[in-house]
Design brief:
This protein is of the alpha+beta class. The protein has one domain: Nuclear Transport Factor 2, Chain: A (Roll). The protein is built from 4 helices and 6 strands.
Length: about 150
C-alpha cells in the first residue's frame, strides 16, 4: 500500500471521527456541527434508522436537526470499522451503537452503517450515511407528531 493511500485512509478516519463526534452532539440536542463534516451539495443523501430517505443538503440538515430537537443525554460509538479509499471517494462500514433520551424516553439502538465520503477542496466530507432501520426508534419519531 502506498504512503499516499495510507495518508488518505488516515484522513478519512479523521473525517469519520469528526462525523461520529457530530453524531454524538446531535444525540445531545445539537446538530450544528454536522454542517462542518457534511458536503453541502444537492447530491448528498441519508437513510436514518428512523426510516425514509433524504436527498440534498437542506433535507439532510433538517433531518439531523429534527432528531436533535428531541434528543438529550446521548452517547454514540462505532465498532468494526473498515475504511476503503478509491481515488477522491471513500466508504466506511461499521456498527453504530447509540443511546439517548428521545422525547423524554430512553432508547438504545445498534445497527450496521455505511458512510460515503468525497474529497472536496482538499477535505473529506460525508456525502451519504445509511444506517439499519430501527423500528422502535422509527415508531417513536412517527408518534411524536401524533
Amino acid at each position: 500500500m502506498s504512503s499516499k493511500h495510507v495518508t488518505a485512509e488516515a484522513d478519512v478516519r479523521a473525517a469519520s471521527d469528526q462525523f461520529y463526534s457530530a453524531l454524538e452532539e446531535m444525540a445531545n440536542g445539537d446538530a450544528g456541527s454536522m454542517a462542518d463534516i457534511w458536503s453541502h451539495e444537492d447530491d448528498v443523501t441519508t437513510m436514518h434508522p428512523i426510516g425514509g430517505r433524504e436527498e440534498g443538503w437542506d433535507a439532510v440538515r433538517e433531518s439531523w436537526e429534527g432528531v436533535a430537537s428531541s434528543s438529550a443525554d446521548g452517547t454514540v460509538t462505532r465498532t468494526d470499522q473498515i475504511i476503503r479509499v478509491i481515488g477522491n471517494s471513500a466508504y466506511e462500514l461499521c456498527t453504530e451503537s447509540a443511546s439517548m433520551t428521545f422525547g423524554a424516553e430512553p432508547i438504545s439502538l445498534e445497527g450496521r452503517a455505511t458512510n460515503v465520503y468525497r474529497k472536496e477542496n482538499g477535505e473529506w466530507k460525508v456525502v451519504h450515511h445509511h444506517a439499519d432501520l430501527d423500528t422502535e426508534f422509527a415508531e417513536k419519531v412517527a408518534n411524536m407528531g401524533a
